[in-house]
Amino acid sequence: MKQLTKSTDIRSELLYLKKQIEITESKISFTSDPKLLDALSYEMLGFKSRLGYLLDNAKSDVSRY
Questions:
Q1: In tens digits, what is the pLDDT along the chain, a chain of 65 residues?
Q2: Which whole-number Å values give the CA distances from 45 to 8, 25, 36, 51, 64, in the listed order?
């Protein structure tokens, strides 16, 4: 049962990150201020790094079974 909760939590976080990436992409497309673009770019990198981390962990969890 604990594994199910963990996979549900990971899935929820993946969906959250996907939505945040979409929102950030939208903000970038409507922004022309260089400083704000820099900030949004770093925000996007953070979301994508976290997404990659979660996907790597999920893959390693699956390969254990």
A1: 455 567 778 889 999 999 999 999 999 999 999 999 999 999 999 999 999 999 998 888 777 66
A2: 24, 11, 14, 10, 29
Q: Which two tokens stand for residue 63?
A: 């390969």
Let me know if 43 is exposed, middle or buried by CB neighbors in 10 A (0-12, 13-18, 19+).
middle
pTM summary value: 0.80
Cβ atoms of residues 18 and 48 within 8 Å: no
